[in-house]
């Protein structure tokens, strides 16, 4: 990868194969390698069948931008993606969002049944923490595990999913919706950045504002996509938010209002970026909000 | 607790309140404290409404027996119990064993619905690793996270649960059943002991044989209890194994054959104990197999 590139799309395209090779390798190692074949197959499908690899790419970017060596950020990058993958499997379950299609393919419980889908998700969460614990640097392993567990757990992603389910059918104001987005989506995305900064040996705390804005921006564009894109574009069934009466920004603000809000969140991310002590890649990081905005024009 | 006591029942009775106070405190801390109220309530119920606290008591015992200070083993002890609690919640789900009753109370999904039960389990797993990562000693945190994640994941507990579900309705030989038990039950029980040994600063590896025998013994008595005890004695609905055509030792060997096998496993545990470099509590540890055997006379 050229150091000169200023496009986050290029960064993502370059990071993706590297991340996917490492994810596949992680599934060959100790725990996953000794899994019953059906379980390993379900885990592989959840982890390797598509995905933008946004979180790992951001993790590697935050590490290099903070002056760190890319290789030190890899375990954290993979762990973030494992948590993301497990959360999609559980979110798609019949008792949750009951989705049949994901990334253009049947969801895990459609293929393997609900029990194996629950268990594959459980095993992916354990694998995320196993991946962090396998690092040589014990201090880094502990710091990243603290960041990831807090972001993935009751105060973060899982808590956000609970609020998201509770808000179904309720009229929500934009502020309430974004409070859900902050947990459901932004917490893990932020932890991915922060694990990368930690891998560079710098304080991850200053990355919170940028990660929080970026995460809410990502979810705003996700709400727009669900409301406007086709099944082919999405790789999953569209208009599910409306069907489930989800509390989305589109429901709260309308399409144009959500687009304006997304632009504001991009601005918030740019401002947060100015506060970060970056050593490299400022232009690539500046391009991330624009990259997310153009997902849902 | 007196150092002189040789009864594991006494050890367990003394450890239980200490563990329960610490579990309740863990739910007041960072992540769990910031959980949406319904999620926190579900997590509390899963973690605090009963339970023998066998795994944490063994963790503390292995630490002291290895010459360590009890307090250093507490985080690992709590983390083992959190993983155990989450596994019960997910095992009870309609798509798994579909149990309505646990410890004399309705199961979590009966009270809160399936979605919140899945999510409370997910959050408890994250809390286990957060609890480990909150320790001051980074090397210990990493070592315990490696032990716990391997035991809880695809090669251990979750893998065993997959095999257990796959074996439903199949005729299994005792060896196959015990291979399931080794993953489903023994892996986590063994990790609890090993995390305790690690907290004492000794090599946890030698505890594997004792933990493995103990875990299979525990599950053998569990199979016996399901086949012989009343609903009141069990706190859950009995004869579920038979109804679900589970691969149990009782199905493979009959009641008397399972009792004989349990006695053999107790003997295996005793022999494994002789190989351990213990500093204290040899008599208490020697009493654990007898304690487990008398669960199902």
Task: Tell me what the structure shows.
- The structure is a homodimer of 297-residue chains.
- By secondary structure, chain A is mainly α.
- Chain A has one domain: Farnesyl Diphosphate Synthase.
- Chain A is 70% helix and 1% strand.
- The first copy, chain A, has 15 helices and two strands.
- Chain A has helices spanning 8-26, 30-33, 37-48, 54-65, 74-91, 108-112, 114-133, 138-152, 157-166, 174-199, 207-228, 231-234, 240-243, 249-274, 282-293; strands at residues 101-102, 105-106.
- In chain A, strands 1-2 form a two-stranded antiparallel sheet.
- In chain A, a hairpin with a 2-residue loop joins strand 1 and strand 2.
- The longest helix of chain A has 26 residues, at 174-199.
- The mean pLDDT of chain A is 95.
- The interface between A and B is large, with 56 and 56 residues.
Number of strands of chain A: 2
- Rounded to the nearest angstrom, the distance between the terminal CA atoms of chain A is 28 Å
CATH topology of chain A: Farnesyl Diphosphate Synthase
Beta percentage of chain A is: under 5%
Shape of chain A: globular
Could you outline the blueprint of secondary structure elements for this entry?
The structure is a homodimer of 297-residue chains.
Chain A: H1 8-26, H2 30-33, H3 37-48, H4 54-65, H5 74-91, E1 101-102, E2 105-106, H6 108-112, H7 114-133, H8 138-152, H9 157-166, H10 174-199, H11 207-228, H12 231-234, H13 240-243, H14 249-274, H15 282-293
Antiparallel strand pairs in A: 1-2
